[in-house]
Amino acid sequence: MLVTMDIEQLKLVWQSAWNSLPTLLAATPVTLGFALGAMLLGLPLGFLVALARLSRFGPLRWLSSVFVSFMRGTPLLVQIFVIYYGLPSLGVTLNPIAGGIIALTLNAAAYLSETIRAAILSIPHGQREAATSLGLSGAQTMRLIILPQAARVALPSMSNTLIGLVKDTSLVSVITVVELLRSAQLVIARTFEPFGPYLMAALIYWLISSLLELVQRALERRFSRGFTK
Fold it and tell me: Which contacts of 49-57 are long-range, i.e. CB under 8 A and separated by 24 or more positions?
């Protein structure tokens, strides 16, 4: 089947995309807020889960492993449904914003925990022994020796997690959160022209991801200089 599109159709698509831009830009801070909020909450939770995974206490290690396996092994969309639509049957009712943030945070924490755990394990064990010989406690060794080096190792993966979160925020549109994708859908419901708004939404997602990639590279260069001096 031959698909053709004349100049007038292209103009209509571009006009539809351009007209949707103010509405989409107004919803973009919501998308960024969800992504950054989930990252800021997920990072300390992921660190605690990583420590639990490295713990010598068997039950704690097992529970944290089950958490990571479940969150990484089930779709984020299903997790959102369980938290927002499932918890009310247990007497816990959340508004869409809280439900979305909790789901994104738990999902991000699972992935971040594996990143942090791998980064900690990448530090040679001899450095721990050297710190012990200098009289540093376990907590001091972790804070002063292990974590600064592990942060440099984990930075690319953590940045990728944040970029992934920006895109994953589109899933909270299913629980009526008016973020970027939901905003595009509302525009389409008014105009009955889907291509332009969806294309503009995709371009905004791409622009945000590209900017975060630039920040990631700048941070990596900064860390590299710091460790090579």
Answer: 49/109, 49/110, 49/113, 50/112, 50/113, 50/114, 50/116, 50/117, 50/120, 53/113, 53/117, 54/117, 54/120, 54/121
